[in-house]
Structure formats: structure tokens, C-alpha cells
What does this fold into?
Amino acid sequence: MTKPLHLEIVTPEKVVVNETVSYVAGPGILGEFGVLPGHLPLLSALVPGKVTYQVGDKRKYAFVGGGFAEVADNKISILAESAEQLEDIDVERARRAYERARKRLSAPTPDIDIVRAEAALNRAIQRLNLVAMK
Ligand code: ATP
It folds into this structure.
């Protein structure tokens, strides 16, 4: 019998997910990747987006703000810059982040870091897209 797969999503601040799962999909830098039990070792950079994982008969979702995923010996470790489970996403906060970034990008002043504002906008959009799936 195949060994169960273990998923851990950690950030510098907290452990966000620590579960036995039967499937994981994540936002790899080269596109979405899927992991089933028995997967070969893998190391991938992640872009901000959605992690999907199956716990028993329940499909769950989390946001990751970029980072790295490593698959080895039926364990998938995601080291994320920031992450929340779908239920923990604060919609109003994401909306505020979206508006802030939009405002900065629509009328940039010399002190605005465009790349940073674009990254913040992207994180807010990814969080809002995830919440919209509920
Ligand atoms: P903000 O400007 O609102 O902080 P951000 O995209 O810059 O948004 P991150 O750098 O991705 O935030 O994350 C910083 C911390 O705040 C992390 O702990 C992350 O989990 C948390 N966080 C950010 N936005 C939200 C949100 N909408 N709901 C819940 N937690 C959030």
C-alpha cells in the first residue's frame, strides 16, 4: 500500500497547515503542479496563488504568497513568505490592500516602488479570487 502523503505549509511566523492528505496542487513558478502519494522528489519555487489539498473527502484551499515547495519521501513541505487557510483570509483586509495598490499604481509618485505595489496587488487579487470560490 502507498504511504500517506503529509502536507506542511509554514511561514516565518506560523504553521498554517499540518495534515495528512491524499492530493496537493500548488502554484509552481512553471505552472500548477500536482502531487499524489508516491511522487518523485521535487523542488519548485512558488508564485503567489492557491494550494489545493484533499483531506479525506474534503477539498481544502490555502493562499501562499510565494516561496518553495519540496516533495520528498511522501512529505510535501511548503515554505511560504506568507500563507493563510481559505477560512482565515480577511476579505476586508484583502480589499484594502487591493485598493491601496491600485491607487499607488494608477498615480505613481517618484517614491512609489512599482514592483512592490504590483506584487501587493497580485497577492490581494489571489486572496480575493480564493475567497470568491467559497
Ligand atoms: P497587507 O498589506 O494587508 O499586510 P500583504 O499582501 O502585504 O497584505 P503579506 O506580506 O502577504 O501581506 O502577509 C503579511 C502577514 O499578514 C501574513 O501573516 C499574512 O498571513 C497576513 N495577511 C495578509 N493579508 C491577509 C488577509 N487578507 N487575511 C488574513 N491574513 C492576511
Q: What stands out?
A: The helical segments are 91-106, 114-132. Residues 31 and 47 are 9 Å apart (CA to CA). The chain has a mean pLDDT of 96. The chain is about 25% helix and 45% strand.
